Amino acid sequence: MVTPEMKICRPKVTVKDLSVSYGRLESLRHVSFEVNEFEILGVIGPAASGKTSLLRTFNRLNDENPAFQKTGKILLDGVDIYEKMDLPTLRKKIGMIFALPAPLPLSIFDNIAYGPRLHNVWKTSELEAIVEKSLRAAFLWEEVKDRLKTPAMKLSGGQQQRLCIARSLAVEPEVILFDEPCSGLDPIATAHVEEAMQELKAKYTIILVTNNTKQAARVSDRTAFFLMGELVEIDRTQKIFTVPQDKRTEDYISGRFG
Amino acid sequence: MDFVGLPVPYTMKPRRISEFLIESAIFLAGTISILFVVLIFIFLAKEGFALFRTVSLWDFLAGKDWYPISYPPRFGALPLILGSVWVTLGAILISVPIGVACAVYIAEVAPHWLREILKASVEFLAAIPSIVLGFIGLVTLVPLVQSLFNISTGLTALAGSLMLGFMAMPTIVSIMEDALTAVPRSYREGALALGATHWQAIWRVVMPAASSGVIAAVMLGIGRVIGETMAVMMITGNAARIPTTLLQPVRTMTATIAAEMGEAVQGSPHYASLFAIGIVLFVITFIINLTADFFLHREK
Amino acid sequence: MIRINPRITEKLAFAFLFFSTLLILVPVFLILVLIFKDGLPALSWEFLASYPRLGMRAGGIFPALLGTVYLAAGTLVFSLPIGILGAIYLSEYAKDHGFKRVVEVAIINLAGVPSVVYGLFGLGLFVIFLKFGASLLAGSLTLGIMSLPVIITSTREALGTVPKSFREVSLALGATKWQTIRRAVLPNALPGILTGTILALSRAAGETAPILFTVAAFYLPKLPQSIFDQAMALPYHLYVISTQVPNVKLSIQYGTALVLILLVLAMNIVAIVIRARFRKRKLW
Question: Which CATH architecture group holds A4-100+175-253?
Answer without folding.
Answer: 3-Layer(aba) Sandwich (3.40)
